[in-house]
Every structure is written in structure tokens, then in C-alpha cells.
Amino acid sequence: MVITDPVSDMICRINNALTRKKDSVELPSSKMKLEIARVLREEGYIANYQHTDDAKQGMLKIFLKYTPEGSVIRNMKRISRPGRRKYVNADNIPRVIEGLGRAIISTSRGIMTDKECRKNRLGGEVILFVW
Predict the structure, then answer these.
(1) How many Å apart are CA 125 and CA 12, to the nearest integer?
(2) Which residues contact 67 (CB under 8 A, 6 or more apart)?
(3) Each residue of 20-77: pLDDT tens digit?
(4) Number of helices and strands (H, E) in the chain?
(5) Is the pTM for the entire model greater than 0.85?
(6) What would the DSSP string read from start to end of 68-122?
(7) CB 129 within 8 Å of CB 77
């Protein structure tokens, strides 16, 4: 199966697993997906992630995080798509739900959150919003 937008596939798989209240979700791995998972773990949206190598590209297993009220991730939304990229400079970095959520941005120094981008005065491609 050919996936034209691997990040959207990742978001869709995570959202589907959260809807079904699964403990974890497995998906094909890539460098960008690993970095997104790292940022999600650092921000406390997921419990952990694990990368396993296989004969192909490897698998990424994301362990989801729940509270008594439900999942920690309420929603994830893809912003920059293959057909329409969304770039911002350091002065126009978006705030997600008045700072309660996070924007994950791909910069020249790697993938980081909107908070880190403001601190480092960096712009880049807005990959997704999570709250």
C-alpha cells in the first residue's frame, strides 16, 4: 500500500487507537515520525515510544497515555500537507488553544514545539497541532 502522506497516516492511526482506547499503536517508522514521537513524549502527550528494526524500514510503537477522564491527547490536526505547505517565521508562530496545546514545527535545527521555536527565534514548517 502506498502512503502519500506518512505524517497524516501517523495522526490517523493515533486518533483511531485513542478512540478504541488501545494501549499502543504500531506504524511504519521514519526519521520524521521518530522526532514527532520524541516531541510528543517530551511534552507529556504519550507515555513512551519504541523503535524496532526489521528488514525494511522498521516499526515505531507508540504507547498512549490516559488519565481517569480519558486520553491525554484530545485531538491532533495536520496543518502542512503535501499539496499545501504552511511555513511561518519566528514572529508568526501560531498558538494552539491560547497556549494549552502545542504546534509541532520542523525547523532548520530539527523538529520542536512552538514554545521552543519562540525561545530560539526560529520559524519553519508547521507540521501539526496537538491538544
Answers:
(1) 20
(2) none
(3) 999 999 999 999 999 999 999 999 999 999 999 988 889 999 999 999 999 999 999 9
(4) 3, 10
(5) yes
(6) TTEES---EEE-SBTTB--EE-GGG---SGGGTSEEEEEETTEEEEHHHHHHHT-
(7) yes
